[in-house]
């Protein structure tokens, strides 16, 4: 008999008035693996997270987490998960150590165990030196890391991370990736929503791209990139006046429509035989007496995947809630045991 998945969502539907946030969503995360969930703003990522963490009830469909039904066994689900959401659940007036000690105590740990676990996590997330400082003095990235540490206090079998590295600097992002990788090596299952394809590259065993509340593509990062196809050639024009002419040259050597960023004076297009296309573009620009800067030949990015699959680019800001409400903070999950 096949082992049941750690996270399963089947035919999930959720409406907010006339707006359908989830339209038959299907997700499956195997035990000890990372499922990356990608999608543009309003795709339904956060709505799905709220259902899987019992903060929201689906209108129809079925979902289980760690073998527990989100409808009929919400308390068992909450005992089985850690959640780091888009909004930091950090008490600004407590120190980093006090925040984690408090969460540990809410999970029922003894004082000595809570103290040890708090110090352990502070070290893991490179917050040891700031452990005894009030969190209101932390940078945004430090507060994000402290929030993620709080999600891992009880060493849950399933961890749900809703864009966990948003706002982190490159070093903080790499440290977070390392912690997530160690979690998976220890057998934890991770459901990760992200807008960084490199994050999915580094962490996800499987990726689901969702749009308008349903999965429109699924596979590894490499498989998704193959759907987009080819390489991307980008150039920065010398002046705004020259940008249209640079875009014309790229259109001539490319295989699709040119994307132009007028603010950055940058044009970008999909190409085949990338190095040959690059050489030809430079030759044509030279013949026109034009000069381009920051010439780049690269693999498809997250925006390329989104643009091809959904018709829009990925946004770097937080996902808008279709019901007009802000997501409830992860502290509601962490303290849920007090309610039942």
Automatic annotation (TrEMBL):
What residue stretches are annotated with the ABC transporter domain? 7-237
**Which intervals of the chain are annotated as region Disordered?**
310-340
Answer whether the UniProt record assigns the keyword Membrane to this protein.
yes
- List GO terms (cellular component aspect): plasma membrane
Q: Which locations, inside or outside the cell, does it occupy?
A: Cell membrane
InterPro entries named among the record's database cross-references: AAA+_ATPase, ABC_transporter-like_ATP-bd, ABC_transporter-like_CS, ABC_transporter_ATP-binding, DrrA, P-loop_NTPase
Pfam families, from UniProt? ABC_tran
SUPFAM superfamilies, per database record? P-loop containing nucleoside triphosphate hydrolases
Domain of life (superkingdom): Bacteria
Keyword tags: Antibiotic resistance, ATP-binding, Cell membrane, Membrane, Nucleotide-binding, Translocase, Transport
Q: What is its main location?
A: membrane
Membrane topology value: Peripheral membrane protein
**What Gene3D superfamilies does the record point to?**
P-loop containing nucleotide triphosphate hydrolases
Q: Which PANTHER family match?
A: ABC TRANSPORTER ATP-BINDING PROTEIN (PTHR42711), DOXORUBICIN RESISTANCE ATP-BINDING PROTEIN DRRA (PTHR42711:SF19)
State the name under which the record lists this protein. ABC-2 type transport system ATP-binding protein
Which species? Actinopolyspora saharensis
